[in-house]
Amino acid sequence: MTAPHVVAVAGSLRDASYTRVALERALEAASEAGASTDLIDLRNLDLPVFDADAREVGDAAQLQQRIDEADSILLGTPVYHGSYSSALKNALDYCGFDEFEKKTVGLLGVAGGSFPITALEHLRSVCRALDCWVIPHQAALPRARTVVAEGEITDSDIDERVATLGEEAVRYANIEPDPACMESLENVGADD
Predict the structure, then answer these.
(1) What pLDDT, in 10s, does the model give residues 125-175?
(2) What are 13-16's contacts with CB under 8 Å, separation 24+?
(3) What is the pLDDT of residues 94-105, one digit of tens each?
(4) Which H/E stretch holds residue 164?
(5) How far apart are CA 161 and CA 167, in angstroms?
(6) Which of 35, 102, 125, 171 has the greatest number of C-beta atoms within 10 Å?
(7) Whole-prediction pTM value?
(8) Where is the NADPH-dependent FMN reductase-like domain (predicted)?
(9) What domains does the chain contain, in order, with CATH numbers?
(10) Are 114 and 145 contacting, i.e. CB atoms less than 8 angstroms apart?
(11) CB contact set of 17 (below 8 Å; sequence gap of 6+)
(12) Contacts of residue 163, Cβ cutoff 8 Å, sequence gap at least 6
C-alpha cells in the first residue's frame, strides 16, 4: 500500500496567517505519520470569483488536480462573521464530487475571538453535501493571536489537537465511507 497523500487548503489570504501556521503543523504531523503532503496556499493561485459559466479560468485546473490527488484533505479557515472565509468558499466552488467524493476531510478553524465552532459546522455541512467522510476530531485555535508566535503554536494543548488532526488524516485516509448521504444525493451540482 502506498503512503497516503494529505493536501491542506489554507483559506486565509493574510501574509501572517495563523491558519497557515496551523495547517503547516498538521501537515508536519501527517508527514511524521508517513504521508506525503501538499499545502495549497490560495494566495498563490489565480481564482477569480467563481462563475458557473466560466469554470476553467485561472488556476482552477491546478487546484482541482492537487485536491483530486489527495487521499485526505485538510480545510483550514479563519472565522469571518461566524463562518468560513470567502477565499475558501470560492476555492470549494471550483471543486465538486470529482475532487471530494468519498475522501477523508479534516477541519481546522482559527478565530480572533472565541471558539470557532460555527465555521467548522458550516464546513462539515459542505463536506457532507460532497459525500466526504469528515474526521470527527476537529482542531480550533480560539484567540489565535495569543497562541501563535513567530510561526509556531505556543499552546501545547492546541498544538496537540492540531497535530492529532494531521495524524488522523493519515490514519483514516483510506476509510470506506458509508453509502451516499441524503444531502449528496440531492446535491447534483449547478448544471442548470
Answers:
(1) 999 999 999 999 999 999 999 999 999 999 999 999 999 999 999 999 988
(2) 13/42, 13/43, 13/85, 13/87, 14/78, 15/43
(3) 999 999 999 999
(4) helix 156-171
(5) 10
(6) 35
(7) 0.90
(8) 5-144
(9) 5-186 (3.40.50.360)
(10) no
(11) 10, 78
(12) 25, 26, 28, 29
